[in-house]
Amino acid sequence: MSPKLIKIVLPIVIVVVAAGLLFVLSNARQPAEQREELPTGILVDAITAHVEDIQYRIVSQGTVQPKLMTSLISEVNGRIIEVSPNFVEGGFFAKGELLVKVEQDDYLTAVKAAEANLARASASLEEEKARVRVAEGEWASFTEGVAPELGLRRPQLAQELANVRSAEAELERAARDLSRTEIRAPYAGILQSRSVNIGQFISRGTTLGMIYGTDIAEVRLPLTDHDTAFIRLPTRGQGDYPDVQLSAVIAGRLQQWQGKLIRTEGVLDERSRVIYGVVQVEDPYQLALDHQNEPLRFGRFVRAQVQGVTSQQVVMLPRNLLRPQNQVLLVDAEYKLEFRDVIVQRTDERYAYVASGLEAGELLAISAMPNPLQGMQVRLGRVDGEWLESTVTSATSDTDKQE
């Protein structure tokens, strides 16, 4: 074949071969896989709104104090000759227990002197009564008519009777002073502080110590007007008292005690504009019963949860989902964002309680979004903590594309 013919035929052959290869490759290619069209938009997580009946618990805090506290003060003068072993700071004592005894010698002498004075006054009274009887007899024997008071010794009799009563009062005073040499506990309690000791001379008005009653402890809880709207406060000591749970962390362990909200102080605090509720706890040191819990000591700072009223058909949602102007962000059936106005009945440090504006089963967006807009298209990721199937499929599809 001549070189000229080769130059003409070779390009034609190459074109035919290329066309044949292109036809073969076109017929051998697999059709493109049909994939489901997935929704587009920002991936967000959501939770489902649940409607339920809720009993509110109002949270407050306060310091444990004794209901009864008394400063023991001496009413006599003298030297202390006896002190109870329980008359120490932190010592417990029973009602009527002898705490401090003052020397009694001078007071015993005063009682004896008062008794002798009363005996003399009583003898003089009996003697005067006899003279009155004699005077009445003499007047009846020698004179007719009404006898004068002086003639019948009536004034003298009245004077002797007054002397007897004065002597009796003096004896009572002496006996009372003698009884005051023994300072006894007016109620069961604990000694908070002590100011005297054995051998010390004290005078009338000397402070001996401070005692606290251990039968009942009280906790003053500050309550706002909004708090009191959700508590059935007792009125005039009548009705059921709301239960109160007190708690504190002691040595790394949470300890709890039960009490009752028995009254309010009735006057708003001028500075904080709150009203104080008073919670009582019986036997805080657990002396009457054999308890295993930690004693509720005076001076301890505790957290309180007061049992409130029950509200019907309320949606409880995390407080951070509540937006300004009482709005929440929903995901509707078309996977679009919706701003919804709701009526909030109450909020606390963790939750917001929605009374109306939400229906059961609606989805609330919980993901953080910088600039959410009404009607913005989104994709659901996790709902109530569980991944949706479509979201998992979308993630698998993205992985396949990368491969």
From TrEMBL:
<dbReference type="InterPro" id="IPR006143">
    <property type="entry name" value="RND_pump_MFP"/>
</dbReference>
<feature type="coiled-coil region">
    <location>
        <begin position="111"/>
        <end position="184"/>
    </location>
</feature>
<keyword id="KW-0175">Coiled coil</keyword>
<protein>
    <submittedName>
        <fullName>Efflux RND transporter periplasmic adaptor subunit</fullName>
    </submittedName>
</protein>
<comment type="similarity">
    <text>Belongs to the membrane fusion protein (MFP) (TC 8.A.1) family.</text>
</comment>
